[in-house]
Amino acid sequence: MRIVFMGTPDFAVPSLEALLKSEHQVVGVVTQPDRPKGRGQEVVFSPVKVVCQREGIPVLQPLKMKDPAFLDALRRWTPDVIAVTAYGRILPPAILTLPPRGCINVHGSLLPKYRGAGPIQWAVIRGEQQTGITTMFMAEGMDTGDMLLQETVEIRADDTAGTLAPRLAEVGGRLLVETLRRLEAGTLTPQPQDDAQATMAPLLKKEDGVVDWTLPAAEIANRVRGLSPWPGAYTYVNGERWVLWRVAVGEEVSGSAPGTVTKVSKDRVEVATGDGTIQLIDIQPSNSRRMTMAQYLAGHRLAEGYPSIAKLIARPSSHSIDYLLAMIILSEHGI
Could you give the CA distance from residue 72 to residue 69 in angstroms, rounded to a whole number? Predict the structure, then answer.
């Protein structure tokens, strides 16, 4: 079949590479426009575009999905199927109805759970022990189309969103090719989703990374894993922003106020939470490199009973999955 592929980040690359190794013909690729990145604001290509340049595949990078010139170019490719993996934009009806065999999406969850832009992060944040890949026909709703194939993937106890995503991406590429094979053979039976079982996984924002120490320790540990590598979980110490790269549920039983340092040793710091304590393992203070807690304590002092590793007034917002930005109250005396 003639395939147009739409995708942008690293997560989409295994899907494209699996298509290139298959019997299908990738006639063109659509990816997000080149954007400036980093402190120098140097323009960089998306990972998908890098593959296209290497393989000599035609690329379209529309600013607007309804641009007539873009839609005309897409039609001239005459795709039988449009395959989509993490493209990053909502497709209008003019695209969804263009290929005769439909638009097929590779989604990083076991639908109908975790519909939305952040399914991998939210599965880890919510403490799930498994997730997976779903291929589905695309519809106008947010990940609401009929499901085609699914495969389950284990979430390991030490997984972060960053370590889980590559494993899911590889499964996604393989499942996409199998979906196309069975679609062409006429052996696929689309399954409608049960909307009553649906959960949402909205796009994460930088401010979602602030640690709410009033949460139970296990929830904080899962949130740190799910927010790594982006947007990153962070807190404040002496007014300095710390990124928390790795934590663990602590061994202390504490009656201290959330955010209080309950234990400091040569290589260990534990902090009180709403239920239990959190042990800080890998951190990154502002304007510094990532380091172990032992490396930090070798050159810095942090006292037990410090009343505010991050004295947060953190309140749940009207959305159960989001939290308002914490207000940080630190005086010269640490009160």
Answer: 5
